[in-house]
Amino acid sequence: MQINCLRLPTGNNGCLQIKDKGELVVAIGEICSREVVFAGRDDSVAAAARLMREKHVGCLVVVEERDGSRVPVGLLTDRDITVAVVAPRLDAEAILVGDVMSAELLSVQEDAGIAETVELMRVRGIRRLPVTDAAGTLVGLVAADDILALLAEEIVGLAGMIAREEKRERKVRKTRASD
What we know:
Elements: E1 4-7, E2 16-18, E3 24-26, E4 35-39, H1 45-55, E5 59-66, E6 69-77, H2 78-86, H3 97-100, E7 108-109, H4 114-124, E8 128-132, E9 138-143, H5 144-177
Parallel strand pairs: 4-5, 7-8
Antiparallel strand pairs: 1-4, 2-3, 5-6, 8-9
């Protein structure tokens, strides 16, 4: 059985890229989770479900080994297991991951921008995407939650800036009024 947890090193190519139009873009590889829990097509759904429980994840990336690299070939979600195995009361020990995984896999390269990744997720109705390097090797997983966390952090930063600006303005006006 080849179900493991993979801790991958983060890239060191910087957070910002300059795209064709001169725009600064945050690469999705900078915010994706580099700790990816994965399974093989021939693993049982029961083993995959136990791994999901153990690692506290709702999704496994299904991979194939190719030339010493792990290449994503599908996703298995807790919903896939519920709908395809649990609800019809099938034997999860006898059903393989490859039988119920989402085989129409979309992935995104680690140098893709956040905006283009969000657009892909929005248009296709996908909450999670494997992140690959230029060779197609699995390097991470990005979820809508990761993007929302980044946006929330940016909004908090903007709110803090507004509060500091108001405080600075009051101080400047108070100083000028006393002159």
